[in-house]
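pasting for ref
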Amino acid sequence: MKIFITGGTGFIGGHLVRALVERGDTVVVATRSPEKKGDSPSVRFVSLEDGLAGHLEGCDVVVNLAGESLFGKRWTAPVKKRLRESRIRTTRSLVDAMGRLDKKPALFISASAVGYYGDRGSDKVTEKHPAGGDFLAELCREWEQAAVEAEKYGIRVVNPRIGVALGREGGALATMLPVFRSFVGGSIGAGTQYFPWIHVDDLCRSFLFMMENSAISGPFNASAPNPVTMDEFAKSLGSTISRPSLFRVPEFGLNLVLGEAAIMITTSLRVIPEKILGEGFRFRFEHVEHALEDILAG
């Protein structure tokens, strides 16, 4: 197949591109600096700003992972505007470009996040739960709504609501590892909040599963079937790298530093991937201990 990807140079996108190439697919990666990347026989880099419809011509699947990072900054009004525009505008541009094609892609996979649900405490959260009411939940809801517009062109739309992707090269784990290896790691916030994680390889496999199963559409929880609390995650990480998990970053401290953005860490989401499990997908890494051992082996 020929796959078009936005966000293909990021942490998740890079893993997905490699998985597609290993499968034998041809990949077109949209980026803001294609001249710096370098093409290969299986991967071509193109400009995100230039002639989307032309780049989409002949593609079987479009994957949309574009969006400014939510982490590491206070959500001021200008930042919120950028976060929204980097997701909604790109999604709308892709939908518009696909709509102008004579031969349209069969599938549009457009990312969302488990933040769609807001804070759910200890409740088990499936795809049946409605959206929450905070900024992140509203952002995810609008993001998904923009993607669903592609259905009017006869394109199947899938929205993976992605949990915290774990991998060595990026994401939350790459940020936490240096702290733990310096013997000052520990839990964050209250520690009792549920942490919806997924091994990045399982995340990519779930995308491939959607490509191969044409009956599946709509949102699905892209998160491992056994979420853990933040305390449990910190303990498992410390155990995996033979470091203690003794320290704690208090919630009030996070609020002082990050403001509203602290909900990315303090929100409790006991997410269950009910839909994809019901369709026959099987996770290779169902438990966080096994995921961390695989990622950090060697």
